Amino acid sequence: MNFVLLFESIILIILYMTSSRPFDKPIPKSPESPYPIVTNFCDIVSGFGRGSAELGIPTANIPIDQVPNAARDLEQGVYFGFARIESIDKEERIEPRENHRNVEYNYGKYLEQSNGDFDILPVVFSIGLNPFYHNKHRTLEIHIIHEFKRDFYGAKLKFNILGYIRPELDYTTAEALIADINKDIVIAKRVLDTDDYKKFMQVLL
Ligand SMILES: Cc1cc2nc3c(=O)[nH]c(=O)nc-3n(C[C@H](O)[C@H](O)[C@H](O)COP(=O)(O)O)c2cc1C
């Protein structure tokens, strides 16, 4: 690829990542009712495993019956907030999954303080039926914006939901879904880095 073309492509990608989409909801300067919604520590369970394998965007699945009604009742969509993981002391086990990709429940044993794994971290949520995958039951999935070295199924997660970004959408390609999730991540990071949102990290201590 020649340099002019490469440069133009980079500019287009930056423009796409920073421009707002028609379906984005304006995000208020600080959280407005019903936010913040704060949970207790919930179990991190395995989903279908497509987040990591097909999208390259791993998500922690939370049993919907463990979250407060206020979170359960939210409209389908993409949300943002903060989360904190706690490991638990339990024997590791392997759980077979329908798609034959086994899940290692290690309860967070391999997480590292020095890697910031136990910090209060920014997150994006998908709440709903994942129209792209035609799920039958409502799920609450969390992508934690952090580089983990290992999975942590079985660990506990406490989180707050601080705002809404957009509705869940259907897509014709996985690439389009990935591009939108990456844009959600950019939006969440930008908002969560402001003082009015950062102060909601404290409730997770
Ligand atoms: C921030 C974020 C936004 C998402 N937006 C959508 C969406 O608009 N439509 C959709 O079908 N799935 C959406 N998803 C869900 C992905 O499809 C989901 O993570 C994927 O199905 C993996 O789920 P699994 O690990 O249970 O297999 C989103 C996920 C995240 C983390």
TrEMBL record:
The Riboflavin kinase domain extends over 37-193
What SMART domains is this protein classified in?
Flavokinase (SM00904)
From the UniProt annotation, give the residues forming the signal peptide: 1-20
Q: EC annotation?
A: 2.7.1.26
One biological process term in Gene Ontology: FMN biosynthetic process
Q: What pathway is this protein said to act in by its record?
A: Cofactor biosynthesis; FMN biosynthesis; FMN from riboflavin (ATP route): step 1/1
| Pfam families the UniProt entry points to | Flavokinase (PF01687)
Record GO terms (molecular function): ATP binding; riboflavin kinase activity
Query: Which UniProt keyword terms apply here?
Result: ATP-binding, Flavoprotein, FMN, Kinase, Nucleotide-binding, Signal, Transferase
Instruction: Give any Gene Ontology cellular component.
Output: mitochondrion
Q: Which family, according to the similarity comment?
A: Belongs to the flavokinase family.
The task this protein performs is described as: Catalyzes the phosphorylation of riboflavin (vitamin B2) to form flavin mononucleotide (FMN) coenzyme.
The entry's protein name is Riboflavin kinase
**Source species of the chain:** Maudiozyma saulgeensis
The uppermost taxa in this organism's lineage are:
Eukaryota, Fungi, Dikarya, Ascomycota, Saccharomycotina
